[in-house]
């Protein structure tokens, strides 16, 4: 039987989130039912609830950094049993047959993967609802294992902020002997610093705020560059192998490209609303690459969760009751969070 589940939803672009009820499907053969205990609050929740990217569908229950406890599994489910901790990230299904899906790159599914919220299931009809809710039913193939003993609240942001930074660090082989720059110390940036440092890279944090230096070093950064003075960037000319750029406000890419060594790569994981101009010579001199990356596939997300469990890596979080979600959005827009809000869904 489908079940009615309490949630919080936005009913129109920009209207505050309010209590709402949704229906979750019956637990099918390959499904895992999860009682959600925690859900991280991602910047993209705000963008979509306010329809800032266009095409949002309402009512919308945001949330794609979901952790909870398995309550029921379908008959064909092999990797989960009731009582296990489980996670759900940005995707709940994909076509599973296209070239991207066959390469475990479900995030780039050629048919368009099913987003955890503000989308539909692969039938293209049934709306999906996210983690600002008490329960979710997800196909086992899109459910992640969270190891016993991991703090579920602090692990929740790994499902989006964690994998979004892990995937490019792994793809471009950050590790011992590599020099990694991280631009912007927010939800994504703080995970990028922790993960790059744990992989053995020498990490340099770029920030506009001198107040962030102590925190950057505590998170694992070896160097700190205050970007307000462009001369500080000049001192790093030709030095870095890889930059993870998390900034979603317009800024000068050329200045950062100049800090790359020969064959260096700058990866964009933040999306400014307008395209900043890139000079061809910023790339030509030094055979440099400007690249982009979007979340990660299911296998890679599991790899990241296991790595974090082994190393004791989690996100720095501030836990809030669901009733504070609208305030939390306002505080995030003021950068007033270190570094991720996580909703305690027992308060719903
Ligand atoms: Zn996200
Ligand atoms: Zn596909």
Structure write-up:
- The structure is a single chain.
- The chain is an alpha/beta fold and 348 residues long.
- It is built from eleven helices and 17 strands.
- Strand 11, helix 6 and strand 12 form a beta-alpha-beta unit.
Q: Which structural traits does this protein have?
A:
single chain, 348 residues, alpha/beta, seven-stranded mixed beta sheet, six-stranded parallel beta sheet, 24% helix, globular, binds zinc ion
Secondary-structure topology with pairs:
Blueprint: E1 3-9, E2 18-24, E3 31-40, H1 43-49, E4 66-73, E5 85-88, E6 91-93, H2 99-102, E7 114-115, E8 135-139, E9 144-145, H3 152-155, H4 161-171, E10 179-183, H5 187-198, E11 202-207, H6 213-219, E12 223-226, H7 230-234, E13 240-245, H8 253-257, E14 260-268, H9 280-284, E15 289-292, H10 298-311, E16 317-321, H11 325-333, E17 340-344
Parallel strand pairs: 10-11, 10-13, 11-12, 13-14, 14-15, 16-17
Antiparallel strand pairs: 1-2, 3-4, 3-8, 3-17, 4-5, 5-9, 6-7
Helix pairs in contact: 4-5, 4-10
Bound molecules: zinc ion (2 copies).
The site of one zinc ion has 8 residues, from helix 2.
Helices and strands, in order, run as: EEEHEEEHEEEHHEHEHEHEHEHEHEHE
Number of distinct helices: 11
Question: How far apart, in Å, are the first and last alpha carbons?
Answer: 22 Å
**Percentage of residues in strands:** 25-35%
- Average predicted local confidence, pLDDT: 97
* Ligand catalogue: zinc ion
What is the 3D shape?
globular
Count all strands and give the number. 17
Write down the Rg: 20 Å
Q: What is the share of helical residues?
A: 10-25%
**Major sheet, described briefly?**
7 strands, mixed
Structural class: alpha/beta
Poorly predicted tracts of residues: none
